[in-house]
Amino acid sequence: MTETSDGMVGTAIPGQTSAPAAKDLAVFRSQLDGLSAQQKLAWAVETYPETFALTTSFGIQSAVLLHLLSSLPAGRRIPVIWVDTGYLPSETYHYADTLTQSLGINLVVAQSALSPARMEALHGRLWETGDVADLELYHRIRKVDPLEQTFSSLGVDCWASGVRRKQTDLRQSMTWLDPIRGRLALHPLLDWTNRDVYYYMQENGLPQHPLFEQGYSTVGDWHSSGPDAAGQSGRDTRFGGLKQECGIHVPQPSGEGMMGDGI
Question: Is 246 one of the catalytic residues?
Fold first, then answer.
């Protein structure tokens, strides 16, 4: 981990494994076709037994993927990386504790080396300016860089997340397996609907995030999330409507919505 003169932490990318060649990626994708979400996770555990991880936000629908993983024979040994920005609602911290204990999650917390107070002293309250560039800087400091540094420290080659196709414009163009910043990102729930998520949670007795009952369909940092309202729901409630993505699922560090790596 390196720190620049302005107090920002640089992403520790050197040493990570390159994504497979296009022909190998095509083979992997064909192997995933027709598999259930849990079978896709099992494929990743078997294909990358020592270098696979799962990421979670402990958000509104996070319990589904965490439960699917914990139900696999080797699932509870797989690292589950949680990017804690230091700005999450108190309800999310309590929900994280509940799911970690009940599902036996092997939790790894990724946090910026720059404390919230120090970041605000150096850069101000970046989420308040209404400037997309400031939001991107915030997301890099508090989310993308800490995640990449954790990936590097754990030697992760492939990681899974609970993104779904209907959530954002970018995610509509995703496949089961996409290169993102030199690693493979698996999307087992890509084609799931809100109904699929709801019924899975009901059938498996999974607790809802406390903010779900307050009208939230998605939740991130306390300052960049809100309940659904007239004419605004889902990801449109995030980041003051300025962005849909925080950068974690974007293939390149800049250019939201741009798909790289031959996709």
Answer: yes
